[in-house]
Amino acid sequence: MRDNSPAASLLGGFIASFRRDLLIAARHKAELTNPLVFFLIAVTLIPLGVSPEKTVLALLAPGIVWVMALLATLLSLDGLFRSDYDDGSLEQMLISPQSLYFTVMAKVLVHWLVSGLPVTLLAPVLGLMLSLPIEGYLPLLASLALGTASMSLIGAVGAALTVSLRKGGLLLSLIVMPLYIPVLIFGASAVQTAVQGGAIGMQLAVLGAFLALAIVLAPIAALGALRISTNG
């Protein structure tokens, strides 16, 4: 028997939007690889520009990896709602009677899966290249998983505000960068503290709190920003 309850309808809409955006992302392979290529090239060039000494690289590794992960995530944000805006489907979604909260969440989840998650999984390899001590690998993975998810959610608000602008990449960066700073500070601090033998529970708890707050508030803010952008 088919379930026509509101919860089932919301779940079905979420799954349909998730599948659609995942297929669209898979068709644009260049957009999928750009953040990873940037992350890889930028981090590997650091030893050439700073110092090849292992002690120096080990000291700088947490900050380097985190800053480059932030920039790699930022690189792919402009296209979060762009294709829907260009083909007119975004306006159709906004006038739909269905709740768009889960539609936005599906888009953000796809963005994290194709940008934030690969960056997170690649980070330990680059940490090895930067002579990051072994104590820092697990905290690096945990902090980046929480941090990149928060950055995708926060970035959705900026992407929604600039979706109607043809060249809104710079404005998008200016909008979201100040909001990324706390995530960057606590994420890099977690790795650095772990390397020094300290407890990282506080940093991970703060990153988790950022993520929980972003899950609740960011999609709502993004919906308001989308309505402002499309009506402008």
Structure annotation, total helices: 9
Question: What structural class do helix, strand and pairing data support?
Answer: mainly alpha
| Overall morphology | elongated
Average pLDDT works out at 85
**Mind telling me the C-alpha Rg?**
19 Å
Measured as a percent range, the helix fraction is over 70%
Question: How would you characterize this protein structure?
Answer:
The protein is mainly α and 232 residues long. Helix content is 81%, strand content 0%. It has 9 helices and no strands. The radius of gyration is 19 Å and the shape is elongated. Keywords: Cell inner membrane, Cell membrane, Cytochrome c-type biogenesis, Membrane, Transmembrane, Transmembrane helix, Transport.
Task: Please render the helix and strand layout as text.
Layout: H1 6-27, H2 29-49, H3 54-75, H4 82-87, H5 89-94, H6 101-129, H7 137-161, H8 169-195, H9 201-231
